[in-house]
Amino acid sequence: MREPPSANLRQRLRDVGLRATPARIAVARSLMMATGPLTHLEIAASLVATDVDKSTVFRVLQDLISAGLARRLDVGDHTWRYERASSIPTGPSGHAHPHLLCVDCGSVTCLADAKVELKVPRAVGDIEEVILKGHCQPCREANR
Hints:
This protein has 144 residues and is an alpha+beta fold. The protein has two domains: 6-86, Winged helix-like DNA-binding domain superfamily/Winged helix DNA-binding domain (Arc Repressor Mutant, subunit A, Orthogonal Bundle); 90-144, no CATH class. The chain is built from five helices and six strands. A three-stranded antiparallel sheet has the order 1-3-2. It has a three-stranded mixed sheet with strand order 5-4-6, with no helix packed on it. Helix 1 crosses helix 2 and helix 3 (40-46) packs across helix 4 (54-66). The radius of gyration is 17 Å and the shape is globular. The chain starts with 5 loop residues before the first helix and ends with a helix.
């Protein structure tokens, strides 16, 4: 993916009422460039050269989530992952795309093109997340 211009990120932050600080731009760029959900530590590690520390990354992520620019993903492994909100295609029901959690290596893969149809009785409530557990391609090939 091409790197988004800083001017676009600055404007996007301002459009949602956030100041376009260097830390917010750096974290937003990290999410925009990612090919899948990232952990807090993965984002912080990618920003070591920018002097943005882990606590600042965490605060910025909370700001981006509150502003609707990012989304926190909990796949049940006690590690939150983050992705840009614009990467979440929604269908008529408004459900986000599913994710695959590899039971071997713990990687999480977006399944944005996957179609999962669930017929959930209205009395059950609303589904917020669909997590599929299985084996990612590299682990599947390694286990053959």
